[in-house]
């Protein structure tokens, strides 16, 4: 039976507190999972995904991409905000391991953030997991994207992925997705997973969560 633990929501302030973050806290001394949602924010899929990861015994901190990126951000600003938040979190944790993950828009922007993290945060990173990223992005939510637009954007996601220097990078796609050139990723420590379905994986968040958990250690 799933253990029900505290669920917190934070929004206002400056620095570490500028992020619209929802926290699933676990008493287990596990790695910290920082997740960025898709452009719909805390929709059914992202919420269920975080619920399932938390049920496996992990602290999950999820950033509402719709709220945070509704106004345009720079990679440097976003990285600084996330760094401030993570430094605050790790100051009160015994386990200093970090997993970074993003879904859809959240996966698009994550490489730009990771490549600008300071060494004190980067050295904690165990895995970077990108769920259904696009080939290009910008750090701003556009209504046309939320309605299914698929135009070329100004920031090259594949090129940014290939700049990564992290212990492990993973992409996860639905088997029906074919827009992302997996073969263009040239990282040495890279894995790709294909799961049934399309961009929403047939709504099977538990299966996606189980796949993520393989890369948490």
Automatic annotation (TrEMBL):
SUPFAM superfamilies per record: alpha/beta-Hydrolases (SSF53474)
Signal peptide location: none
Pfam families: VirJ
Protein name: Virulence protein (VirJ)
Domain Bacterial virulence: 32-215
